[in-house]
Give the backbone structure.
Amino acid sequence: MNIPTHVLTSYWAAQRLRARHPWAVALGAFIPDTYYTAKAVKVMVRERRLPGPDDLDYFRPRTKPADVLGHSLLPAGATLLGGWAARSPRVTALAWGWLGHIVVDLGMHHTDAAPPFAPLSGWVFHAPVSGSEQDRYANWVVTAEAVLCILCGWDLARSRRSCTAGQ
């Protein structure tokens, strides 16, 4: 799943579940992909061009520590436990978004899957579908993501209009 889809669907789910801090959930969904965002910004600033898939190491096995740990359940789970221990609803919401991203990614990546229990284990679940591999139904996955984004955006806009209609 791509970064905007993770963020939008997480925000939508948080709104639907009436979470206290939906923006924290959306930010948490962004955390695993900060590595790719930083690489993209680096290419845009240093080389003054838009980055391509080769610049971002997409579609390859994950080896960079920041990327692997960002997609690991262990630091995300530790953040959730820390949020609960500190009684911080914002940190807890952020951790739920982070965990949600990882769980969704487990079913969406094949060759470029990340080990969910890093650094304790290098085991990787290779999903039967992938948004980046044509032989793993990428066209269907990307189409489904686009439809999901449209539906989430429509529902958020509709619910916002109904909230402000009586004002």
In short: The chain has a mean pLDDT of 90. Residues 3-164 form one domain. The helical segments are 3-16, 22-30, 34-47, 65-70, 73-85, 89-106, 138-164.
